[in-house]
Design goal:
Helix Hairpins; 5 helices; single chain; mainly alpha
Length: 185
């Protein structure tokens, strides 16, 4: 009788530890997915804002430099009166002052640095997402092993736990990227 009681208690303890282990693994999978989901959300929120910022600055820089170049060309053409030269000078002065103030306050603020920042931000974010996917796949594999291996598979069946799908890259994303084609769009 005592032997039977010990076996029942031992079985109950094994069930409890297995149950708690499976719950911990299930929660770890959900947490890992939450981290990956948060990074993906960050990507979707951040990228359009960075691109818009770079485009705005590029447009400002391009417009300002184009205006200055056009005004300079008119000024040196030799076919204008002194009044027109004064007017052109008055138009160029604020543009140059604006560029100088911007350069003094933000010497690193150039369109090419905007692209470098964009590139670095995207690279860092994609590396974080890739790391998160690797972590997620590792945790899902551990979880799937736990629900399929003996004796935890019996407890998992009682709990209704189902196998989780690991993150896989679609076949079209495994192909080499044709950078020349991307730049010709």
């Amino acid at each position: 009788m005592i032997f039977l009681l010990i076996i029942v208690c031992l079985g109950a303890l094994i069930f409890i530890f297995t149950y708690n282990g499976l719950i911990a693994k299930k929660n770890a999978v959900e947490n890992a997915f939450g981290v990956m989901d948060a990074l993906l959300k960050k990507r979707y929120d951040l990228i359009p804002n960075i691109i818009a910022t770079v485009q705005q600055y590029m447009n400002y820089e391009k417009d300002t430099l184009t205006k200055i170049t056009d005004l300079r060309a008119k000024a040196v053409s030799g076919n204008i009166s002194s009044d027109e030269k004064t007017t052109l000078s008055n138009q160029v002065t604020p543009l140059l002052r604006n560029i100088l103030v911007t350069a003094e306050n933000y010497p690193e603020l150039k369109a090419n640095s905007g692209f470098m920042d964009l590139q670095n931000t995207l690279k860092d974010l994609e590396e974080q997402i890739a790391g998160s996917r690797i972590g997620y796949n590792s945790i899902v594999t551990e979880y799937n092993n736990a629900i399929e291996m003996f004796p935890s598979n019996f407890v998992a069946g009682l709990m209704g736990l189902q196998r989780k799908v690991i993150f896989e890259i679609p076949a079209e994303e495994r192909k080499n990227v044709n950078v020349k084609e991307l730049f010709s769009k």
